[in-house]
């Protein structure tokens, strides 16, 4: 079976975009998958250490609440398997500064500013190390991360060419609908964890009332037609994508169903569907958060399992690149 690996950053609250683009799919296909709270990735921008610790716990709890089952998959915290930093160094000597500078995420967050951390530029190499350390075949992510997975493929292919067949070359998988959920207030921008648009971002832990309010005030257009057309109708198309994923109904069926209903009725249906879609996670979260010791036990088991895979890969890598064995 194809091995899945993916990660999520403990920065800010998990939103419905994360859920639709990534986490919900991890849950659906979790058997033998490896999923990671990427705390090392959360250090590239200035941050508070106490917040990083509490957000790591909070996000890991939320992943369990979302339905990841430690009996069926491996859930761990990235920094608990520290050899990922060693592989990052080795891959740093294979990746080029040119290709890292071309990454959209780097260009948006830091290009041209001398004072940004070197970690911000190197971020995709750490991500490549994550993916390659676990012999990953498939990386379930939202569309914004596909460029980083392409870079991972390039680096792995170059490594194999230079040092012999050592690394599994992975591929990204994105959902057919909802690969880039948009901000409800600004439907041409990606829904994001940065709290610039609280009204445009539906959080997985939002109360039903808050979800309804946000959906009802979502930006649409001056037309009345419910039709999927990302260019002409970005707001309506975004709501259709959310309704489709939340109800499991194909978009064309929804277009037919709501064609003449008007935006008020349509938005009401989207809000109700999202409330039901997210309800089980919100309810389980409250129970799981009450038992942090249990979470710590799950994460320790996850780290041990991940470590076993990682150390086998690292043995192959060290030999391939010419590092002297210790024994
Ligand atoms: P930021 O907003 O700070 O960039 P993020 O939410 O994009 O954060 P992560 O938490 O690391 O960053 O993302 C976890 C997963 O969620 C990734 O696979 C990413 O592609 C996916 N994802 C994030 N935002 C969206 C979105 N709006 N639509 C679909 N998938 C998304
Ligand atoms: N860079 C990703 C998070 C991430 C990841 C990974 C995703 C870190 N390591 C490995 C998939 C596989 C992001 O910003 N969303």
Question: SSE layout and pairings?
Answer:
Layout: E1 5-8, H1 16-28, E2 34-37, H2 49-66, E3 74-77, H3 83-92, H4 97-101, H5 104-109, H6 118-133, E4 138-140, H7 146-163, E5 171-173, H8 208-216, H9 234-247, H10 251-258, H11 263-289, H12 292-321
Helix pairs in contact: 2-11, 3-6, 3-12, 6-7, 8-11, 9-11
The site of L-tryptophanamide has 13 residues, from strand 1 and helix 6.
Polypeptide structure, described:
The chain has 327 residues and is mostly helical. Helix content is 53%, strand content 6%. It has a three-stranded parallel beta sheet. Helix 3 packs across helix 6, helix 6 (118-133) crosses helix 7 (146-163) and helix 8 runs antiparallel to helix 11. The two termini are 34 Å apart. The structure holds adenosine-5'-triphosphate and L-tryptophanamide.
């Amino acid at each position: 079976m194809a091995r899945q690996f993916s990660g999520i950053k403990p920065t800010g609250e998990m939103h419905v975009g994360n859920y639709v683009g990534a986490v919900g799919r991890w849950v659906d296909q979790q058997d033998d998958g490896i999923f990671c709270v990427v705390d090392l990735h959360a250090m590239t921008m200035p941050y508070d250490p106490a917040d990083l610790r509490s957000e790591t716990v909070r996000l890991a709890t939320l992943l369990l609440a979302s339905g990841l089952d430690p009996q069926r998959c491996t859930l761990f915290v990235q920094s608990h398997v520290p050899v990922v930093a060693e592989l990052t160094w080795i891959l740093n000597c294979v990746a080029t500064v040119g290709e890292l500078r071309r990454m959209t995420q780097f260009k948006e967050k830091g290009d041209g500013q001398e004072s940004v951390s070197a970690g911000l530029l190197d971020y995709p190499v750490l991500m490549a190390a994550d993916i390659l350390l676990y012999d990953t075949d498939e990386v379930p992510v939202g569309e914004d991360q596909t460029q980083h997975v392409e870079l991972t493929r390039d680096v792995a292919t170059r490594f194999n060419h230079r040092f012999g067949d050592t690394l599994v070359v992975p591929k990204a998988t994105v959902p057919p609908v909802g690969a880039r959920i948009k901000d409800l207030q600004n439907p041409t921008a990606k829904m994001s964890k940065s709290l610039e648009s609280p009204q445009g971002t539906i959080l997985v832990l939002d109360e039903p009332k808050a979800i309804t309010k946000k959906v009802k005030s979502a930006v649409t257009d001056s037309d009345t037609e419910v039709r999927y057309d990302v260019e002409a109708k970005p707001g309506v198309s975004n709501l259709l994508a959310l309704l489709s994923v939340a109800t499991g109904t194909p978009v064309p069926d929804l277009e037919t169903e709501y064609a003449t209903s008007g935006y008020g009725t349509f938005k009401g249906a989207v809000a109700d569907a999202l409330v039901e879609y997210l309800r089980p996670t919100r309810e389980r979260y409250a129970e799981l958060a009450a038992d942090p010791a249990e979470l710590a036990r799950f994460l320790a088991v996850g780290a041990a399992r991940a470590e076993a895979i990682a150390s086998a890969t690292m043995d192959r890598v060290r030999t391939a690149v010419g590092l002297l064995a210790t024994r």
